[in-house]
Write a structure and sequence with these properties.
The structure holds two protein chains of two kinds. Chain A is mainly beta. Chain A contains one helix and five strands. The longest helix of chain A has 9 residues. The model of chain A has no long low-confidence stretch (mean pLDDT 88). By secondary structure, chain B is α+β, with helices and mostly antiparallel strands. In chain B, strand 16 and strand 17 form a beta hairpin. The longest helix of chain B has 22 residues. Chain B is globular, with a radius of gyration of 22 Å. Classes of the chains: A mainly beta, B alpha+beta. The interface between A and B is medium-sized, with 25 and 41 residues.
Chain lengths: 91, 575
């Protein structure tokens, strides 16, 4: 999603993929499938995750932004790829 | 009442044997550890007449417990010289239970070097000549055996790798589609089976023995709760059926412990190409699917079917370990090529993990470059063809690496590591070092619950590894898939399992008693290894893991030997 076509300048677009089902409905969501969503400018990763998973937070094993482990105080930026993984039990 | 089927290959006799009381509460890996301690000299040659091959289900085999159809295969390993249990899915374990068999014990060797198959029916077991089947690899072999003995026959078999005595050879088991895709891969047990002249075990599907219970109603009630717990776990209930174990590719890459280029890095910029997500994309265009059960009654369904470019079945269960060790670890970014390697390994009867690591040390030695897909396949073909170099490769990663002068050989006690670099995933590193099986993640994979950069610290990892080694040994004793163990992090779910054990076998079962099965098993395995000549000095990782910084995390394996010796602190049980 490009900033060029975004109608609301207070929102940014993210690419989101999760192995945990969010409590909030996200259009096109499936386990492991990339989908697009919008959040307010200056949203932190922690706020974003809390909004999507709320009481389901203990199911999350790993959070990555752009393929790197990320902390919850990271400010999300336009085009970030946010990946949520569950607890790893080994292959 | 279940029985032992004892096969004496030297005199071609089969004995139905009553199970001694001392074995009644042992199953799977625990039963194997106990019998091997009781019946064989730990210093015996693994491919000689003194070793025994034991094949059995777990304590809950034959019940509707979820994921309880794992088949354990054990003996002294020709790869490691240690005790070894490897387990697989497939249809054989449940068939054994229906045939009333607790374990098949194969002993001695035919003096005339003849080969045979063991056919087991409802009221009869017999040894039949294998002339017709000798030299066949697993796909052709199982097809022929099903034509000869029935389409619904369950088959446990070896390919030519087992016939050749390769120390990286597997025992394969047919899946629910009849393909020989489920592997008891580790430790070269295919060669042990071959050393007995046993090409295949053919199980008739007409068995009708029902499981016995102290209280069937209570068992079913507790089982229902345990199934619910497994399905409510986000990983076993959602991720595994959707993406399978390949879902670990991206997780391990983010964490920086994905083995890359013979463990020279833990993160790979092409990891996405070999991920579960990529596999699902491929399946959407040519067929194949996720969400298959690897054995009857599995509710986790992490297996998959991977088709070739024409839409024909290529392999089943393209798993994380196979993908990482033949993919990123060899610099191979094509799932098609990795799937072809998996097919070749299943067919010829090779451990895919040992094979991937062996190819990678060849790449490190400069035999072929990293990323050389055709070269990797040609190395496997050399093993199949039995060339001199192929025979060397068939002795596994450590022997091959030493012969080629490689300094960085990722093995412990002669067995190659799994798809987790221990410099980053240190709990699993402790397991690699201290497990009685050599470098084996299924002996106790030990990620911390919440993964973050703190995961790279060494604190608490010895204790975590010990806990996981006991837990996984317990599940291997029960015959349950270790993935079902994930939900037992919640004590109430472990309590359901205790209720199931009480309802199956009677008596009081609490957490201490049930975990005692795991402790006892590891203690027995340690006892065997000690008698075979192993000491604490063997419990360590290869030198480069202590000295060479892993670029992805900036860490080395820094858990000292004296700390490692605190892992598995119950060797003194010596039961």
């Amino acid at each position: 999603m490009s900033e060029n076509i975004r109608k609301n300048s207070n929102l940014i677009g993210l690419c989101f993929k999760s192995y945990i089902t969010p409590i909030e409905t996200i259009e096109g969501f499936a386990i492991g499938k990339k989908c697009l969503c919008e959040v307010a400018v200056n949203t932190t990763l922690g706020i974003f995750i809390l909004k999507l998973f709320n009481q389901n937070m203990e199911s999350i094993g790993l959070i990555a932004v752009n393929g790197q482990i990320a902390s919850e105080d990271r400010i999300l930026l336009e085009g970030d790829q946010v990946d949520i993984y569950g607890f790893m039990i080994g292959g | 009442m279940l029985k032992f089927l004892r096969v004496k290959t030297d005199i071609k006799s089969i004995i139905d044997e009553k199970v001694e009381e001392k074995y009644s509460l042992l199953g799977g890996r625990g039963l194997i550890a106990s019998i091997l301690n009781d019946e064989i000299d730990p210093t015996c040659h693994a491919l000689g007449p003194g070793n025994k091959l034991i094949i059995c289900g777990g304590l809950l085999n034959g019940t509707p417990a979820p994921a309880s159809g794992r088949l354990s295969v054990g003996g002294k390993s020709p790869l490691t010289g240690t005790i070894k249990e490897a387990n697989a899915g497939g249809i054989a374990a449940k068939m054994l239970a229906k045939l009333g068999i607790k374990a098949i014990i194969v002993e001695n060797q035919p003096a005339d070097k003849t080969w045979f198959i063991l056919r087991v029916c409802k009221n009869k077991a017999e040894l039949l000549p294998a002339d017709k089947y000798l030299g066949l690899n697993n796909y052709a072999l199982t097809k022929q055996l099903r034509e000869d003995f029935g389409e619904k026959t369950g088959i446990i078999s070896i390919g030519r790798a087992g016939e050749y005595g390769y120390r990286n050879s597997s025992v394969q088991v047919t899946d629910m589609d009849g393909y020989p895709t489920r592997a008891a891969g580790r430790g070269g047990l295919g060669a042990v089976m071959g050393s007995k002249g046993l090409k295949a075990i053919v199980l008739d599907p007409a068995g009708n023995v029902e499981a016995e219970y102290a209280d069937k109603e209570n068992f079913m009630a507790a089982n229902k709760n345990f199934i619910k717990a497994v399905l409510e776990n986000p990983t076993t209930g959602k991720v595994m059926p959707a993406l399978g174990t390949a879902s670990l590719v991206n997780i391990c890459n983010v964490m920086g412990w994905l083995p890359t280029h013979n463990y020279s890095d833990g993160r790979w910029d092409k990891a996405e190409n070999i991920s579960a997500e990529r596999m699902v994309e491929i399946q959407s265009t040519r067929g194949g699917s996720q969400g298959h059960a690897c054995h009857p009654g599995c509710v986790i369904r992490c297996s998959n079917i991977y088709n070739d470019e024409t839409g024909e079945h290529l392999t089943s269960a393209l798993e994380y370990e196979t993908i990482s060790l033949n993919g990123s670890n060899c610099g191979i970014a094509s799932l098609d090529t990795i799937a072809r390697i998996d097919r070749m390994c299943d067919d010829f009867g090779l451990d895919t993990m040992e094979t991937g690591c062996t190819i990678a040390v060849c790449m490190e030695a400069g035999k072929i470059p990293f990323g050389d897909e055709a070269g990797a396949i040609s190395l496997i073909q050399e093993m199949i063809d039995g060339t001199e170099f192929g025979k060397l490769l068939g002795q596994g990663t450590e022997v091959t690496g030493k012969k080629l002068g490689v300094k960085r050989i990722p093995t412990v006690k002669g067995q190659s590591m799994a798809g987790y670099d221990p410099r980053a995933l240190k709990g699993t590193g402790v397991t690699y070092a201290t497990s009685p099986m050599g470098a084996d993640h299924t002996a106790g994979n030990a990620p911390t619950r919440n993964m973050s950069k703190e995961s790279y610290d060494k604190e608490g990892k010895v204790e975590l590894s010990t806990k996981m080694q006991v837990l996984f040994a317990l599940f291997d004793c029960l015959g349950l898939c270790i993935f079902a163990a994930a939900c037992t992090a919640d004590p109430k779910n472990l309590a359901f399992l205790c209720e199931m054990m009480a309802a199956k076998f009677g008596g009081e079962w609490d957490a201490n008693r049930i975990m005692g099965l795991g402790q006892q098993t590891v203690a027995l395995e340690k006892k065997f290894n000690q008698a075979a000549g192993f000491t604490d000095k063997d419990d360590k990782l290869p030198d480069f893991m202590y000295t060479e910084t892993l670029p992805s995390t900036g860490t080395v394996f820094d858990i000292a030997d004296e700390e490692l010796r605190k892992a598995i602190p119950f060797g003194a049980l010596n039961q």
